[in-house]
Amino acid sequence: MAQATDDLNANPTQAQQILEEVRELRQEVEQANQKNNEFNQKFDNYQKATQWVVQLAFSLIAAATVTVIVSTVLGR
């Protein structure tokens, strides 16, 4: 570890380049995290919408079934 520190102290330009690369990598990771969060939000919205459509379909089927049964029983 001391050798690496001595090498960086001997060549400050190299240390600056390494720091710049670390900053660039950090920005890339932050951008990737942001895109991942956006994707997760879209997926969550899609999942909720799909669940809502399924519930609506079952409700319509149930309502139609009740209507048919009541109509048959009452003879209308």
Short account of what is shown:
The chain is mostly helical.
Written overview of the protein:
The protein is an all-alpha fold and 76 residues long. It has 2 helices and no strands. The radius of gyration is 31 Å and the shape is rod-shaped. The N and C termini lie far apart (90 Å).
* Poorly predicted runs of 5 or more residues: none
Structural class: mainly alpha
Order of helices and strands: HH
- Which descriptor suits the 3D outline? rod-shaped
What fraction of the residues are assigned to beta strands by DSSP?
Answer: under 5%
Distance between the termini: 90 Å
Indicate the topology.
Elements: H1 2-10, H2 12-74
List keywords for this structure.
mainly alpha, 2 helices, 76 residues
